[in-house]
Amino acid sequence: MSEPVGAELRGVAASPGIAIGRVHLLRREALAVPERALPAPQVAAEVERLHAAAGHARARLERIHRSVSSFELPDAILRTQLMILEDRQLLDEVARHVRERLINAEWALRIEQERLNALFDAMRDEYLRERRTDVNFALRQLLLSLLGRELEDVGALDGPTVVVSHDLSPAETAQLDRARVVALATDAGGRTSHAVIMANALGIPAVVGLETLSATAHEGDLAIVDGRAGRVLLRPPAAAVRRYAARARQERARERALLRCADLPSETRDGRPIELRANIERAEDLAAARACGARGVGLFRTEFLFMNRSELPGEEEQVRQYEAVLAGVAPWPAAIRTVDLGGEKLLLPGLRRVEANPALGLRGIRLAALPGEAGARSSLYASQLRAMLRASPAGTLRILLPLVTGVEEVVAVRQTLAELRGELEGEGHAVAERIELGAVVETPAAVGIVDLLARELDFFSIGTNDLIQYTVAVDRENEAVAYLYDSGHPAMLRAIRAVVEAAHAVQRPVGVCGEMAGDPLYTLLLVGLGVDELSMNAPAIPRVKRIVREIEQPEARALAAGLLELRTAAEVGEELRKEMRRRFPDEFEPTSRVP
Ligand code: PEP
Ligand code: MG
Hints:
Elements: E1 7-10, E2 12-15, E3 18-26, H1 43-67, H2 75-86, H3 88-101, H4 105-121, H5 126-146, E4 161-165, H6 170-175, E5 181-186, H7 194-202, E6 206-208, H8 213-216, E7 222-226, E8 231-234, H9 238-260, E9 275-280, H10 286-291, E10 297-301, H11 303-306, H12 315-329, E11 333-337, H13 365-368, H14 379-391, E12 396-401, H15 407-426, E13 436-441, H16 444-448, H17 450-453, E14 459-462, H18 464-472, H19 490-505, E15 510-512, H20 523-528, E16 533-536, H21 541-549, H22 553-564, H23 569-583, H24 585-588
Helix pairs in contact: 1-2, 1-3, 1-5, 2-5, 3-4, 4-5, 12-14, 14-15
Bound molecules: phosphoenolpyruvate and magnesium ion (MG).
Phosphoenolpyruvate (PEP) is lined by residues 299, 301, 340, 442, 463-466, 513-514.
């Protein structure tokens, strides 16, 4: 094959690692939508045809769902698609277009799809925008059924394959031969897109947001995917292939070596334990957490349980989830965060509220601390807190409260917990004797009153993602001010030090559960600032542990003290990078030097 040498595309680094393989293009054929006017007497039959097609599409997705366990396609993705096709409101809207406009179901479906896409266009939250892909894939399944078509063929793969696509549909992905896919690369997508979830589940490199990749690549092109640098090289010169192949071998060897340390203790060379825990979103994440050596769960974000559904999860369903997590990590603790709905995370249709400034609105613990039936006694919180208490005998439960800004919020939840405990015991349920209660320190108010909160709480976990946003007054989703969003801001360093000092004065442990905890660049600094625990996405644990095991407290403290003297985030970042590169050249080698 004669291949003109090279194109290099840059996108969003979504899953680390290097892969070299041949491109397989997943191109979805544009489906022609027939447009027919309907005589009024045919409307009822057309609506029936719509419902039958939805049933057919659901059955097809269920078949895929049952057949994919070997591929390890995250269950939740397919369930989301099924739920969209089960959504009565959606089908009712399409049926309404059929009735009111007297048009065929395919046409009506396209009108509804355009309307939904316009709504998605208006959303700012990256996670929500990504859900547009879910809706469009589900609607495509429905359209295929209306057209009397079956699932599209993704084609056979041969040898190590880089799957290239505009975006990735779960149904298509499910059909790919897992043994041959070495990397995923897509035009579309942010950090929460399917390709990212898939790649993380499969442990393969991925780059998303490459914009023009699927138009630039040809079937069978040689491609290098550098998931850490967010780069894809098409038809690379032989020398680049050799260099990347060598680096891929090195990375794999390092990865294996790091994973071999999964069972070694996480403690500094001079013997201070730094507990490394996992951030999870569902019980299924525990397998990866264990494999990476997590000791316990430092943050279970329970919002996932509440997403993409029309009704609140019931108490029983929650008990099962929480028990699975608690038992799965015992004897280590699991910190389950009460649902952090509100602001951009308000995802239940019944709870949707329009706020001019949602980041500062009714969210987090504020919803639980509302008086009476609206707050912790509402069906939302009471069922969650009851479920946590009922699950507590399965392991070591820590309850984590998001967005705390005042002592009274904590007091209100504590009071409700005591009442619920009494009720549950009266109903014959066992509840663990000791359950720790803690707060996510993610507002400057919480930082300022840690000593007061400590009287009501057993532990603290610094949520740096929000703490940066609220400290520097920078919307964490707003690209225009992203340059100001910096973990190394002197105000952040001071805040972390202040929290540790106040909490340690009364023997309360302090963890960090924001993204900063999983970035090895900050490990030495956080240890130097006195943090006791770091909780992160599981794949980050081996790298962070390696650093913890190679440092000593006095040098960490000296580094932190030095950085606390600096005046700007840029100075802190520069100094920190220089120091970490000197100590761990293999970890902090600038990626730009490689090709
Ligand atoms: C945080 O704010 O740092 C945090 C851990 O929570 P989330 O990212 O879910 O807001
Ligand atoms: Mg937060």
